[in-house]
Design goal:
There is one protein chain. The protein contains seven helices and four strands, in the order βααβααβααβα. It has 130 residues and is mostly helical. A two-stranded parallel ribbon has the order 1-4. Helix 1 crosses helix 2. The protein starts with a strand and ends with a helix.
Length: 130
């Protein structure tokens, strides 16, 4: 299995049972089977926590946190190199800082990605076509 970077929207889509949640579940199941974790930034982890507490409650977050921490996900802290890559990416793309950090991690790890944020995916595809 090739390395994959997930963003917070992928996990949130899975938790909410939204479109593409089956795809995200399959990615996580394959990662567990092969003992090869997917990657995510700590900022994405924070976004998941914020979204769950804001839209549900802390008890629901406690339940989800246990599941998230036992999932085959390797969380990456933001070091200077990753921050520099994210800043450069954001300069040339219409995206949030969180999205630019995800893209920086993809570049740093030379991973393929699974992004459920349609606006960012469209933005990247438009840049590639130019």
């Amino acid at each position: 299995m090739a390395n994959i970077v997930l963003d917070s929207s992928a996990i949130l889509c899975l938790l909410r049972g939204e479109a593409r949640s089956i795809e995200v579940r399959q990615i996580l199941e394959k990662a567990a089977e092969k003992d090869s974790p997917v990657h995510m930034t700590e900022v994405d982890y924070a976004q998941i926590k914020y979204s769950v507490i804001q839209n549900e409650n802390r008890d629901e977050w406690n339940r989800i946190e246990a599941i998230t921490l036992s999932a085959p996900i390797k969380f990456h802290t933001i070091d200077r190199n990753l921050a520099d890559l994210a800043a450069e990416f954001r300069l040339f793309n219409n995206c949030t800082f969180e999205q630019s950090l995800t893209q920086a991690l993809i570049k740093k790890l030379k991973c393929r990605t699974h992004i459920t944020d349609i606006k960012l995916t469209d933005s990247i595809n438009l840049k590639k076509q130019s």
